[in-house]
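From the pipeline queue, job 12 of 40. The input is one protein chain; the requested action is below.

Action: predict structure.
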Amino acid sequence: MQPELDPAVPITIYHNPDCGTSRNTLALIRNSGVEPVVIEYLKTPPGRAKLVELIAVMGVPVRSVLRQKGTPYYDLKLGEPTWTDDQLIDFMVQHPILMNRPIVVTPLGTRLCRPSEAVLDILPSAQLAPFAKEDGEPVIDAKGRRVAS
């Protein structure tokens, strides 16, 4: 049985337009017939309270939301186990590029969508058309079904 959805609750994506995974995730949301609220988190960071909330509702360790590639992760030595979750969150607030992406919030849940097709598990609407990632990998077939990987 599908949970009852509140149409007033929009889908939100914390998006980086320079990231292929984020672009593919956004395209999959749109392929379900929804225009999400797009928050370019590098321009409009979520702030500490929102970041703490997102991590809590995802139910994941803080470290799983830390991005390493293309960030100051190594310069700041964030891989060292001495950092507390609160300190790591503070670093993400100070350096939003450290926040892994895309994070998607829907009425069905909140998830870090890596790989991009992880968003399919939390979208309330079916896919409307075939879809392939930017690299050509098929994700949705002509009948709107997920392609087995």
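Job complete. The first helix runs from residue 20 to 30.
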